[in-house]
Amino acid sequence: MSELSPLTIETVKATIPVLREYGDTITAKMYDILFENYPETKSMFSSAPDEQPKVLAGAVSAYAMNIDNLDALSDAVGKMASTHVRTSVKPEHYPMVGESLLAAMTEVLGDAATPEILDSWGEAFFFLGDILIAKEKELYAQT
């Protein structure tokens, strides 16, 4: 697995104040976009709590705060991977979620969602996605 670029790490960390202010709005919008564009994903969230957008916003913020120390997130990654296996998330779902997340950032943040920010968050999302996919592959093999 490759490393995140220094620019991505710097840019993602710089967005932490924005995530604190708009994270819940971004993730709620992300789910709207995801379910509209990929209705087949809705069933994966049928048992998710009503506060799922808030939970995801917290996870995104935690990732941003620890993007240069991912070992701090190993327990959270394990829990996410277990949940993803339980709800049948597959590698092909990650591009759908990533696209929806970036679209939500663009919609909520408007002009503040610069190409640099979107490129960095795209790199960061898919980097974390690769970590989750690898962990989920291990878990699927065990079941």
Explain the overall architecture:
- With 143 residues, this protein is mainly alpha-helical.
- The chain has one domain: Globin-like.
- 72% of the residues lie in helices and 0% in strands.
- Helix 1 packs across helix 6, helix 2 packs across helix 5 and helix 5 packs antiparallel against helix 6.
- The longest helix has 28 residues.
- The two termini are 25 Å apart.
- The mean pLDDT is 94.
Give a quick precis of the structure.
GO terms for molecular function: FAD binding; heme binding; metal ion binding; nitric oxide dioxygenase NAD(P)H activity; oxygen binding; oxygen carrier activity. The protein has 143 residues and is mainly α. It has helices at 6-14, 16-37, 52-65, 74-86, 93-109, 115-142.
Could you give the topology of this structure?
Blueprint: H1 6-14, H2 16-37, H3 52-65, H4 74-86, H5 93-109, H6 115-142
Helix pairs in contact: 1-6, 2-3, 2-5, 4-6, 5-6
